[in-house]
Amino acid sequence: MAPWLVPRLFSPALDAQIGGSGLRSALLPSSTSDSTTTSTSSPPSNALPRALPASRAFSTAALAAAAPARSGLRSSKLTRTTAASRLEQTTTHLAFSTSSSASMPPLAKPSTNHYDMVVIGGGSGAMGVSRRAAAYGKKVCVIEEDGRLGGTCVNVGCVPKKLMWHAADMAEHLSEAPEYGFGDVNNKPAVPGFAWNYFAEKRDAYVRRLNGIYDRNLDKDGVEYLSGHGKLTGANEVEITMRGEDGKFTAGTHKVTGDRIVIATGGRPIIPSDDKIPGASLGVDSDGFFALREQPKRVVVVGAGYIAVELAGVFNTLGSETHLLIRHDTFLRPFDPIISETLQDHMSKTGLRVHQKTNITRVEGERGGPLTIHTDNGSPIEADCLLWAIGRRPNTDNLGLEHVGVKLDQGGNIVVDKYQKTNVDSVFAIGDIQGKALLTPVAIAAGRKLSNRLYGHASLKDDHMDYTNIPTVIFSHPTSGTVGLSEPEAVDKFGKDKVKVHTSKFVSMYYGMLEHKAPSAFKMVVGPGDKVVGLHIVGLGADEMLQGFAVAVKMGATVKDFQETCAIHPTSAEEVVTMVPTTHKP
Ligand SMILES: Cc1cc2nc3c(=O)[nH]c(=O)nc-3n(C[C@H](O)[C@H](O)[C@H](O)COP(=O)(O)OP(=O)(O)OC[C@H]3O[C@@H](n4cnc5c(N)ncnc54)[C@H](O)[C@@H]3O)c2cc1C
């Protein structure tokens, strides 16, 4: 089988971990298709202790068990329930409208040889661009090779990650409950253990329901969904290698043409090669995190970006012994120092073992068994799971870009102008594949704006994604959020004399009642004309707090605008409009 036919969302390391009985092997010619079950396992009959017992060893079998839940999804039928309809309503931010029909299978072949728009990829960006184009009456098809729609965000990114964060958040609240009068505070009951497998099954069922909603939304909007691998064979031509119901890419090939071709193929996680770091492939990546069926007792997470911090935070908060290995002194270095410093200090106090200036040199052990992780700084670490979260690479290989000479940058990302157009007039690229602001709402908005500009009213002829002041949140413990320039970026841009910084550090009222307190730390970065050019917040509720303030920053609000907005009391957010007295110059 040609290597490019291997589904991109599953890394070699995960494939190795699932030991031939997992999803990837299910897609290879020698395998059979997997279960299509959408049921969840029963709730645990008895609570598990918070510290994981040794008997719950982390195993290859546990990883392999993940496979059925992640495959064979195209043929699953969604039974509509009240919960499902509720779900449809609550996912409009991802899917912008819903339908009540049953889940639609992909088409067996294209309905025509020519489309107004052909979209390669079926993730966030593809949904945005294709559905908007179809709303303008255009004939559009979406080609997705993974066997399910939704891409990284829905299947192995934002959605399952946020659910894991909610579980961890609940563990925190359970441990705090006695101090709020629930149970005997002098004889605190053990926090019930977390049934990882039960939750993972339930989480995956939720994701499958989202997959079904995505299917139906495309169908409702008249976008054709073709399950297969797309490859450019000309500036206006795409070859589709169709994927059959058994998951194999043996259902024939078709060539279609499009006035416009949009590449929305996203990226995939990186793992170092075994040549570079012997034994590196004994670890998993972020896709592998979602394949875990048991909670590892001891985990090493490698990486300093937001995905590493979020996943390490989940493990740590749920009670795994968690080591985070970072190359420098601090994690989240591109973020404002108030975020990285506050979080690193607090997460370390809550048990996360941050190993600064530490690189893995060698990994020993057996796949799925205990691992000995050797580093260049200190004694080896014994762990049950090694998770690499060291970055992602764009899915540009075997896309046929060379056929039409689409330019890539040094990182392999597709180079686009502000209208998402590549150097080839008919070819566009949106989302992670263009290497800027790798976030779901960015991919969706860039896609919608592209279709607005191409097919919309004259007033939309300049519509394009503005890559400045994009708000984003880190689902850490506590959460943190950021919009605009960090203090160092503002100083670089405007000069030290033109920048003022207002900060506030406090303990939110929720923690005032508790023995163990989590910090809140806010920073407003002010540029010329007293304009708020950056806002960075860490603390309880930061995730929900930031969206509204981001509107103000995007609109160019000044400090006065913030100050003249009446505070909402008692909240943490009120600090944002009242923190001026602690002003300092950088
Ligand atoms: C662990 C994790 C957590 C994240 N959390 C967040 C978060 O909280 N908030 C947020 O905004 N973002 C988050 N992200 C980022 C977000 O998931 C991505 O920015 C977003 O999914 C990008 O959308 P996209 O359409 O560009 O690509 P994708 O969603 O990756 O979709 C690309 C699709 O193209 C398909 N494909 C690739 N090549 C081909 C081909 N040749 N033919 C056919 N199909 C192909 C792939 O199978 C894939 O389904 C997270 C990512 C990860 C990994």
Structural account:
This protein is an alpha/beta fold and 586 residues long. Helix content is 30%, strand content 19%. The strands form five sheets. Strands 1-2-3-4-5 form a five-stranded mixed barrel. Strands 16-17-20-19-18 form a five-stranded antiparallel beta sheet, with helices on both faces. A four-stranded parallel beta sheet has the order 9-8-7-13. The longest helix is centred in the middle third of the chain and has 26 residues, at 196-221. Mean pLDDT is 85; it is low at 1-102. The structure holds flavin-adenine dinucleotide. Flavin-adenine dinucleotide binds at residues 8-9, 120-126, 143-146, 151-153, 157-158, 161, 229-230, 264-266, 286, 307, 395, 399, 431-433, 438-441, 443.
